Amino acid sequence: MKNLFRKYYTDLFLGKRLFIAIGVCVTLFLFSFFMPFLGDLPYILFGILMVLVLLDIFLLYRNDRGVFLRRDVPERLSNGDDNELKIYLENFYPFQISVGIIDEIPFQFQKRDLWFTANLSSREQKIITYTLRPTKRGEYHFGLTRLYVQSPLALISRRFNIGADKIVPVYPSFLKLRQYELMAVSNRLTDIGIKKMRRIGHSMEFDQVKNYVAGDDYRTVNWKATARKGDLMVNSFTDEKAQHIYCIIDKSRAMKMPFEGLSLLDYAINASLILSSVALVKQDKAGLITIAEKTGSLVPADRRPTQLNKIMEVLYKEKTRYLETDMEALYISVRAVLKQRSLVVFFTNFESMSALERQLPFLKRIAKFHLLLVVFFENTTLKSLSEEPAQDIEGIYIKTIAEKFAFEKKLMVKELTKHGILSLLTPPQKLTVNVVNRYLAIKAKQQI
C-alpha cells in the first residue's frame, strides 16, 4: 500500500491547466451565491474536472514504462572545450505527449536552468543535444535525469526518475589535441593559424633521391644520379628526428590567475599536451616536468605510442600550489634527467621585473646546456585598459599604471633575449597556436 501511494503521489505533479480550471470553478461557486440562476453549473463543471483528472491519471499511469530515455555522456570530458551530450527519447504511449526534462549536471557548471521540452507522437523518437564546457580538471558527478510527462489533457504531470549517478573525469583538452594531430599529419596546420616556416638551409637527415619538380632547390641536384638516369635528380631531406622536446610547467601561485574561466595553469597544460602531440607526429621525443616549491611529476622523453597517454594521465591530476617556484630544484632536475641537448619549453608567468630577476640566474644556467624557450602571459585586461582613452584624473592614473605593467612585460622579453634565452609573450587564448608556431620555427631553423 505504501509503495502504491508513493507511486501515485510522489511522482504526480499538478499542471497549470488544472490550476486554471480549479480557479474557474471556485469563481463560479462564489458567483453562485449572488447569481442563483447559475444553479448546479459549478457542481457539474467541478465534477467534469474531477473525472478528467482521474482520466489523465489513468492515461499516464496505465503503462509503467511509457517513455524511454537515455543520456549519452562521453567517458571523459575535455577541459575548456564544448563537449556534446545527448538525450535520447522514445514515446511508448498510444497518444501524443509533452515532456519536460531536467538533467542533473555536476555542480561545477553552476547551471540551475537546464530545462528541455519536446512533443512526441506515439512511437516517435527524438534526440536532444546540448553542450557543456568544463573549466576545471577532476571528477564530475552527474545525477538523475528527471522526465515530466503530460498527456493531451495536460492537467497533471507524471515524473520519471531515470538513470543513475555517474562520475565522469575531465581531462586536459583532448578534443583540440585530436584536431591538431589530424592537421599535423595532413600538413594542414595553417587552417588553424599555424604558420608555414620557410626552411633555412638543409637538415642533415637524408631521405631519398627523387626526380626534380618545379620549386625544388637547385642546390640539391645530385649530378651523379642525373648522369646515370638522364633526368634531373635531386636529393630529398627530412626534418631531424628523435630530438628531445620537454615541457616544464610552473604550478606555483603565479599560474593561478583566471582568464575566461580557466586558470593560466590549465592553459599551459592544454598547450603542452598539444605541443607534445605535434612533436610526436613530427617524430620527436616528448617529455614533461612539473615544478612548484619542489619538483613534481616527471615523464622522460620518449616517442612510443603510449607516451601521450602517460603525459595526459599526469597532467590530469596537476593543481596549482600556493608557494613560489624553487628554481634550484628545477635546475637540478633538468641536469639529472636531460642527458642531451633538448628544447625546453618553460610555461610560467612573471608579473614584475623583480620576479624575473629572481629566476634569471637559474634560467641562464639551463640555457647553457639546452635551448630554453620561456613562455609567459600577457595581461589582456591591463592591455585593454592601457588602450582605452582616459576620461578623468582617475582614468589617467589607471591608464598610466596599466601602461607601466605592459611595458615591463616587453622589458622582460628584452632581458631574456640579452642573455640568449628565447621567449614568447602571448595572450592566454592564443597560447597553443603561438607555442606550436614557435616550435615549428625552431625546427625549421635547426636551432636544437
Distance between the termini: 78 Å
Tell me the number of structural domains: 4
What is the strand tally?
21
Strand content: 25-35%
Strand order of the largest sheet: 18-17-14-19-20-21
Give the overall silhouette. Answer: elongated
CATH architectural name of the largest domain: 3-Layer(aba) Sandwich
Radius of gyration: 33 Å
Number of helices: 12
CATH topology-level fold name of the largest domain? Rossmann fold
Supply the CATH class of the largest domain.
Alpha Beta
CATH superfamily of the largest domain: von Willebrand factor, type A domain
Largest sheet: 6 strands, mixed
Structural class: alpha/beta
**What number is the mean pLDDT?**
85
Show unreliable segments: 196-201
Percent helix, as a range, is 25-40%
Transmembrane segments: 12-35, 41-61
Domain DUF58: 208-358
Keywords: Membrane, Transmembrane, Transmembrane helix
Organism: Pedobacter planticolens
